[in-house]
Amino acid sequence: MLSPELGHYALALACVLAAVQGIIPLIGASRRDARLMALAPGLAIGQMIALGVSFLSLIYAAVTDDFSVQNIAENSAVSKPLLYKITGVWGNHEGSILLWALILGLCGAAVAAFGRNLPSALRARVIAVLGLVATGFELFCLTTSDPFARIWPAPMDGQGMNPLLQDPGLAFHPPILYTGYVGFAVPFAFAIAALIEGRVDAAWGRWVRPWAVAAWCFLTCGIAMGSWWSYYVLGWGGYWFWDPVENASLIPWLTGTALIHSAIVVEKREALKIWTVLLAIATFSFSLSGTFLVRSGILNSVHAFANDPARGVFILGLLGVVIGGSLALFAYRAPTLTAGGLFAPISREGALVLNNILLCSLCAVVLTGTMYPPFMSLLFDRTISVGKPFFDATTIPLALPLFIFMGFGPMLPWKRAQLWPVLQKLWLAAIVAALACAVAVLELSGVLAILCAAAALWVIAASVTDLAERTKLFRVPVATSLQRARMLPRAIIGTAIAHAGVGITVLGLAAMSQAQHKIVEVPIGTTEQLAGYDWTLKAVEQEPGPNYTAMVATLEVRHNGRLVTVMHPSKRSFNSQNQTTTDVAIHTNMLADLYGVLGDRHGPDSSPTYVLRLHYNPLAPWMWLGALIMAFGGALSLSDRRMRVGAPQRAKSTPASTSVA
Fold it and tell me: Can you tell me where the transmembrane regions are (predicted)?
């Protein structure tokens, strides 16, 4: 029978198994002892099962309203809907760390299950590194963040969950985001294992890439879901606020994107080995750093668990061990990593190097803007803020050349290329971008918005052109083009789709810079004009909810006298937490969002007035549609048979060649 005691015992057992998993296989790999190395998969699967039991025990305590568990008493209530009792398990610090550990355990079990084609020593080392990282997080759970801690006497009812988190989007946002964060632990483990072994080659690049792509897909979806939550739950009408915690997820996404592209070069040309290993270390290190920032109390954010700096000290120590140890190993082994295949500056490898430079520059800018305020506060006791103007002014000039070279890169040959033949193939895409720029000058205001819109259309058109060239569209019969399309590797199609998704997102961002909004205070029956629409407040009524009461407005929107939609924005009051939230009403036709928010009620009962926030957001859905297309492109690449089958077994090396290929 599931219980908090069983969950705590299972967590302690998982910690012991993780420690053994982190030590025994490493000893076996160093001694070439097949029996010790063979223990790694079983230990990883055993740790995952123990963590699964622990996590299910916490869910059971939440569902059965066991308020003798402090975590449940502080974050749940009898009246809370069942969905949020379950998802609320990871809507707090203790539960989210247990979820992190569970996903890390799943990653180790996945390597054990799907890494059978790996050399036994490499597989053992990868699983061992994952076990050592898992040990740190499970010790964190047991020592400073115990999700099963009891309280006595147990209250009759809990305090309830933060009302902002009682939303389906945010309920599933943490597992997806954490899978992206933790998923990069696998490329990190491959990098550490390769440094220990002293060998990075094409086979290693092919083994790393699927794990990096899978983590990148989850992280992309997680970031997009968090952005969508900000858009329709917070009621501010925006989608991204350069919040420090938002930036903490963007930073590993940027380096993870660079990692995927570097791994391709290692696989195809055995070049950029140092780049790839360092990016694998950096991406997971940034994922861990984001966890530290959210839980240390350093950052002030609506997303942060800033309630116990002592927990931040533990994570800071874990960061020091993981990041410091991995960088020390990298510094020791890096001189032995030979450069590999040579290539000309104008080549696909050259384009990918430029891609990495720009992505890492963007990462450095975002990291600087995020960490500068807390460091200034810590060192000089000065309170400053770095917001949207800084990030827009510094990131867009770096992003624009990145978008431009995204069009060229996939069409350049490996090793050496000539630019003119590629330009000839892209003439139609260039015309599309030029026309888009001309239209943007007429429709958009602001130089950066115009350039971003043109760059977005260029990326989309170049992606389509790449597929058209590969299928010889309009140059051979349609049936032949279709046959060639069916024969194309899915990784190539997935790459084009992901790049097009980037263009669609950027187009949505450029259009959103032209959004219109108005804040008004009106009585019932008043009509306001915004963006050519008539917005009429028809009624405001009180309605009960599962664990709240709501003030619901009826907002009628017309265009040229024709009824477009009836919207029902609301304001919810949660009595148990004494908090109020907004429930935004959004009507979309995929080209624009009509967005309404109900604010405070003022005046006497006989003639009340209500605050309304009205927005017209052009192409807003395209931002999240583009992110989903990006993730779909990555998933399609993962389905490529070359990814699933993996690389062939390495040839046995002689003792003299055990350094680096």
Answer: 6-27, 39-63, 97-114, 126-145, 176-196, 208-230, 250-267, 274-293, 313-332, 353-375, 395-414, 426-442, 448-468, 488-512, 619-638
Choosing among 2.60.98, 3.40.50, 2.60.40, 2.40.50, the CATH entry for 516-621 is 2.60.98
> What is the Cα–Cα distance from 450 to 507, expressed in whole angstroms?
10
Phi, psi of 501 (to 5 degrees): -60, -40
Q: How far apart are CA 322 and CA 134, in angstroms?
A: 11
**Do the two domains 162-343 and 516-621 of this chain adopt the same fold?**
no
The answer to whether the CB of 200 falls within 8 A of the CB of 273 is: yes
| Cα separation of the two ends of the chain | 53
What's the confidence (pLDDT) of residue 649? Answer: 46
Find the helix or strand (DSSP H, E) in which 587 lies.
strand 585-588
Give the model's pLDDT for residue 653: 42
d(CA 452, CA 394): 14
State the DSSP string of 316-354: HHHHHHHHHHHHHHHHHHGGG----S---SSSHHHHHHH
- Give residue 475's pLDDT: 85
Contact indicator for 159, 60 with CB cutoff of 8 Å: no
Q: Say which residues have a Cβ less than 8 Å from residue 50's Cβ, sequence separation at least 6.
A: 10, 11, 13, 14, 17, 105
Question: Whose CA is closest to 250, among 208, 206, 290, 213?
Answer: 290
CB 194 within 8 A of CB 330: no
As a whole number of angstroms, the distance between CA 535 and CA 483 comes to 52
Secondary structure (3-state) at 485:
helix
Do 24 and 46 touch, CB atoms closer than 8 A? Answer: no
Domain boundaries, the chain: 1-161, 162-343, 415-514+628-633, 516-621
DSSP letter (8 states) at residue 144: T
d(CA 526, CA 516): 19
CA distances from 349 to 150, 251, 344, 417, 607 (A): 57, 23, 8, 10, 69
**Residue 650 to residue 204: CA distance in whole angstroms:** 9
Query: Rounded to whole angstroms, how far apart are CA atoms 38 and 45?
Result: 12
- The strands making up 585-588's β-sheet, listed across from edge to edge, are 516-523, 609-618, 592-602, 585-588
∠ CA 63-64-66, nearest 5°, is: 110
Q: Mark 323-356 as b/e (b = at least 16 C-beta within 10 Å).
A: beebeebbeebeeebeebeebeebbbbbbbbbbb
User: DSSP letter at 647?
Assistant: P
DSSP letter for each residue of 524-572: TT-EEEETTEEEEEEEEEEEE-SS-EEEEEEEEEEETTEEEEEE--EEE
- The structure tokens listed for 264 are 């391709």
Nearest-5° Cα angle at 293, 287 to 296: 135
Nearest CA to 597 out of 541, 537, 547 is that of: 537
Q: What is the pLDDT of residues 557-600, one digit of tens each?
A: 999 999 999 999 999 888 766 778 888 999 999 999 999 999 89
CATH number corresponding to 162-343: 1.20.120
Cβ(412)–Cβ(346) below 8 Å: yes
Which residues of the chain, if any, have pLDDT below 70?
295-310, 312, 338-341, 576-577, 642-661
Element (H, E) at 596: strand 592-602
Q: What is the pLDDT of residue 30?
A: 93
